Amino acid sequence: MQKKYIVRLTDEERQQLREVIKKLDGSRQKVRRAQILLKADIAGSHWTDERIAEAFGCRTKTVENIRQRLVERGFEETLNGARRSTPPIEKLLDGEQEAHILALRLGAPPNGYAHWSLRLLSRKVVELGLVERISHETIRRTLKKTG
């Protein structure tokens, strides 16, 4: 089957990829992407997707996705990964609110309950007016963090 996305690297790009691999410069994903691009280069090693996937312990779909990203989005974004379009969510609770939740969790559960569930805690926190609304998942992360 003929490949839809062909990897053609310039000499400068090949050299940059070799430097990333040699110095282990960047994240593990960046190094793996550099290795895959070098092996997929038509003017270089020109390995098959299956051989690349086997050599680097990934799926062939991963290799195909990297080829496609190189052709559609360019070398820099493929190597370094895409930047987030929106920044991470700000912290939902401050330290005082977290302390209240932890103290509530360590206290006795309401009558009729054997222990605090995450959903019960989230309802109680809203009922007490600590926050306007909160999910049980935020409660879980807060309790796990203070662990």
TrEMBL record:
InterPro entries: Homeodomain-like_sf (IPR009057). Pfam families: HTH_32. This is IS630 family transposase. It comes from Stenomitos frigidus ULC18. The lineage of its organism: Bacteria, Bacillati, Cyanobacteriota, Cyanophyceae, Leptolyngbyales.
